[in-house]
Specification:
single chain, 78 residues, mainly alpha, 4 helices, 56% helix, globular
């Protein structure tokens, strides 16, 4: 798993990463957050396609309930 930028990358602002470092995210919350960066920043446009919690969980190997709780906590933390 080398960092091959030719296969794509997500450009994220340093100040955003700085804020993430100091937050006590759970593993699931961090995985959902990284997934959001990938689909929003990584594709370099606002993501408009709807995706269910079950589909997100499938990509992240998490249950839909775990995804739901992680999203709720992330939204409350903003």
């Amino acid at each position: 798993m080398a960092g091959d930028l030719s296969k794509g990358h997500a450009k994220v602002a340093n100040n955003l990463l700085d804020e993430i470092y100091v937050r006590p995210f759970s593993g699931a919350q961090f995985r959902v957050l990284c997934w959001l960066f990938r689909v929003c920043y990584g594709w370099q446009h606002k993501w408009s396609e709807k995706m269910s919690r079950r589909e997100i969980g499938g990509e992240l190997h998490l249950s839909w309930g775990t995804v739901q709780v992680a999203l709720m906590v992330l939204l409350d933390a903003r």
